[in-house]
Design a protein that fits this description.
mainly alpha, Butyryl-CoA Dehydrogenase, subunit A, domain 3, 25 helices, about 5% strand
């Protein structure tokens, strides 16, 4: 049960089921193109919208299954040539749907009184947000021919460069202590109790990056160059403006979040310098000890023990959450352990047509990996709530995507902290602060770095040495005196897949949003108790049908104001002060 079961999707590429699904997609693409050709000013508005919703729903459902299967196969075996070929095919088929979506949005843009039409038609009411959002997208859409060309060229552009980054990092050989191991395995050693292991693993990791630095830099430059050109064509001020728009949030919300994060940097610096002192360092903390465990925990978790631990703590929140975790384990939704060819990190993929998810982790038995498991199961729980909605209403944006996952992390961390004593309490508290520091301080450094990359890339490709310098400068700005300024990792742009998307720039601030938003929700849950759980479930279910600010307003939170973010960060400040007192 260490690997996931993909047979509920398809038995294999050669199976009758997979071939039939691909055939259905191809048939729907033809039908959708024919539909696009019928759109005209005198077309009946209601029947045309209904037909669009029907075709779009069928296409989305089939693509989620077929693309999901290919993506999941590739995630655990980057060298699978059959999966690589099918990923290319999926991209081509997806590009063929561009005419359908573009033509409909441009037609919808000319529909007057759309809101009134929706309000007067029962069948359209559930799709109100989807349709109004589609109409607003017209302002940033090019001609039908241009959109089709862009979609096709992206397959050999940003999509291909993204796959290169994934393949090179998942296949990278790292020489460590006379043996060859994977990048995920060597990065997991950053959590070792042994200081010598941590330092040697860090040095081995940096040495390995040297082998792929030029290729990955080429990927990064190509993707960011493509995005810079496209955002200008679409009428956005910058890639960040496009990202905020795509996140369905206001710029004032992001500004409030970032201002609060910057203002609270000194408290994280205090935590890092205290940790450095405890580990025998003068001044700031060397990067290779950033994830060093403090305190003591005798627990090494097996996979079964980790799941039992998570389920037990989830049950303190709700039976639904605990049962979802049991189901994920029993039905083999999770691919747990690292191996060559498997991508690093962790993710959750929601499969709406099956009402299931699939989770990838690189589990090694550490407590931090247990927290990662809880995080990804939180994504699966979000999926389970939103599966109640129609598939076109099930696409939520990145900031709210991290809400349930971070809430689930918090549930497990709080429970663990409550049960612990003495050295184990210090261990768990510091593990929590370690993760929080990553999501606030390191995410800020990633945001600063990506913003600078886009700025410089407007004029010239960025060589490897410049990328390394820019990364170190971003880390200095975010981490300040908390880190040893002479021992910063210049290659952190290589292993973060979040930088390598042509359609999802700035996939960093959503993590900070999710953490602090979840802390605010958890505070309300502690105040209101079990009666508040249905309200949280409703919030999760509505994330595909509302802007971020409206989702937050469902539970009385105003995310456009700094006060909310400051209040959430004050909760973290209390944890840091507790840590400083415990380690005095």
């Amino acid at each position: 049960m260490n690997t996931w079961d993909l047979t509920p999707l398809f038995p294999d590429y050669d199976s009758k089921e997979f071939k039939e699904t691909v055939s259905k997609i191809e048939g729907l693409i033809k039908e959708s193109k024919a539909f696009a050709d019928t759109l005209s000013a005198d077309a009946d508005t209601v029947s045309t919208i209904k037909k669009y919703l029907e075709l779009a729903s069928k296409l989305r459902s089939l693509f989620v299954q077929a693309y999901g299967y290919v993506n999941l196969r590739l995630a655990t075996n980057a060298q699978d040539e059959t999966s690589q070929a099918w990923m290319n095919k999926m991209g081509q088929m997806s590009a063929e749907t561009t005419k359908f979506s573009t033509a409909f949005i441009q037609w919808l843009d000319k529909v007057e009184d759309l809101e009134a039409i929706i309000d007067q038609t029962e069948a359209l009411k559930p799709y109100r947000y989807h349709l109004l959002r589609a109409k607003s997208n017209a302002a940033h859409m090019l001609s039908e021919e241009e959109e089709q060309l862009i979609a096709k060229l992206k397959q050999t552009g940003s999509e291909a460069w993204s796959r290169q980054q994934s393949m090179l990092t998942s296949m990278l050989d790292v020489e460590y202590e006379g043996e060859t191991i994977t990048l995920s395995a060597v990065r997991n050693k950053a959590h070792s109790q042994d200081a010598g292991v941590r330092k040697k693993a860090y040095e081995a990791e940096l040495a390995a990056y040297k082998k792929i630095e030029q290729s990955i830099a080429f990927s990064l430059n190509s993707i960011k160059g493509e995005v810079n050109e496209l955002v200008k064509m679409r009428g956005f001020e910058s890639p960040l403006s496009e990202s905020v728009y795509n996140a369905r949030m206001k710029e004032e919300t992001l500004d409030a979040l970032l201002e609060s994060m910057r203002e609270h940097r000194p408290m994280f610096h205090k935590y890092l310098r205290r940790k450095a002192k405890m580990l025998g360092h003068e001044g700031g903390l060397p990067w290779y000890d950033l994830f060093a465990p403090l305190g003591k925990s005798e627990r090494e978790f097996s996979i079964d023990e980790a799941m039992q631990y998570v389920v037990k703590n989830f049950a303190s929140y709700s039976d639904d959450l605990a049962n979802l975790a049991k189901r994920a384990y029993n039905e083999e939704w999770i691919d747990f352990t690292p191996r060559k060819g498997k991508r690093g990190g962790a993710f959750c993929f929601n499969i709406h047509p099956l009402k299931q998810s699939r989770i990838l982790t690189n589990f090694d038995g550490s407590f931090s990996n247990v927290i990662t498991l809880a995080h990804e199961l939180g994504h699966a729980y979000h999926g389970d709530r939103i599966f109640e909605e129609e598939i076109l209403n099930a696409s939520y944006t990145m900031p709210v995507a991290e809400t349930a996952s971070t809430l689930c992390e918090t549930i497990v961390k709080k429970a663990a902290l409550q049960d612990a004593k003495d050295e184990e309490k210090l261990f768990i508290l510091e593990q929590s602060l370690m993760g929080t520091t990553q999501v606030i301080v390191d995410i800020l450094s990633r945001f600063i770095f990506e913003q600078k990359v886009f700025e410089v890339r407007q004029n010239t490709p960025i060589p490897v040495e410049k990328l390394k310098t820019m990364m170190e400068e971003a880390q200095k700005e975010a981490y300040g005196e908390g880190l040893d300024q002479d021992k910063l990792p210049p290659y952190m742009w290589i292993n973060k897949p979040h930088y390598y998307s042509g359609s999802l720039s700035f996939y960093n601030f959503p993590y900070a949003f999710g953490l602090l938003f979840a802390k605010g929700i958890y505070a309300l849950y502690q105040e209101k108790g079990a009666d508040f759980v249905p309200e949280i479930d409703k919030l999760l279910r509505m994330t595909g049908k509302m802007d971020v600010e409206d989702v937050a307003a469902l539970v009385g939170i105003d995310v456009t104001k700094r006060e909310f973010w400051d209040k959430s960060l004050s909760v973290i400040k209390e944890e840091i002060e507790m840590f400083l007192d415990l380690t005095e």
